[in-house]
């Protein structure tokens, strides 16, 4: 009986946890998930976990391919740019047109484009 209960508990824990080699990889999986979800879509917690686990599972299988390495580097550059701007990636979808004035939006856009240009050089 104890073995069956422990197996049930472990199945539940595995269903809602994510294995990653380090924190940066975990953040990469979360960022990819957020970029994948269409603008304005709201996923349930279960859907968020399932999608992130799917990204992690697929990533393990194809992480050494050149296209994946390039994509991973672009996502890391995107995350670094957001960090420099003081914005978390989960906040990007939440920004509304009224969150900033027109001049603030223009300045933020120019700053982001300039920094992105530096990353691409």
How much is the average pLDDT?
78
- Termini, distance in Å? 61 Å
Q: If you compute it from the alpha carbons, what radius of gyration comes out, rounded to the nearest whole angstrom?
A: 18 Å
Number of helices: 6
Structural class, from helix and strand content? Answer: mainly alpha
Q: Uncertain regions: pLDDT < 50 for 5+ in a row? A: none
The total beta strand count reads 0
Binned strand content: under 5%
* Largest sheet features: none
State the helicity in percent bands.
over 70%
Order of helices and strands: HHHHHH
Can you give keywords for this protein?
mainly alpha, 6 helices, 74% helix, elongated, 121 residues
Mind explaining what this structure looks like?
With 121 residues, the protein is mainly α. 74% of the residues lie in helices and 0% in strands. The chain contains six helices and no strands.
How are the secondary structure elements laid out?
Elements: H1 2-15, H2 23-36, H3 45-62, H4 66-85, H5 89-92, H6 102-120
Helix pairs in contact: 2-3, 4-6
What's this, in brief?
This protein is mainly α and 121 residues long. It has helices at 2-15, 23-36, 45-62, 66-85, 89-92, 102-120.
């Amino acid at each position: 009986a104890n073995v069956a209960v422990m197996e049930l508990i472990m199945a539940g824990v595995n269903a809602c946890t994510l294995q990653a080699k380090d924190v940066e990889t975990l953040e990469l999986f979360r960022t990819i998930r957020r970029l994948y979800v269409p603008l304005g879509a709201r996923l349930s917690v279960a859907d968020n976990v399932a999608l992130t686990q799917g990204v992690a599972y697929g990533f393990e299988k194809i992480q050494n391919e050149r296209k994946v390495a390039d994509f991973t580097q672009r996502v890391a550059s995107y995350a670094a740019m957001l960090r420099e701007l003081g914005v978390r990636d989960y906040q990007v979808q939440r920004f509304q047109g009224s969150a900033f004035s027109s001049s603030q939006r223009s300045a933020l856009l120019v700053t982001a484009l300039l920094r992105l240009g530096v990353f691409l050089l």
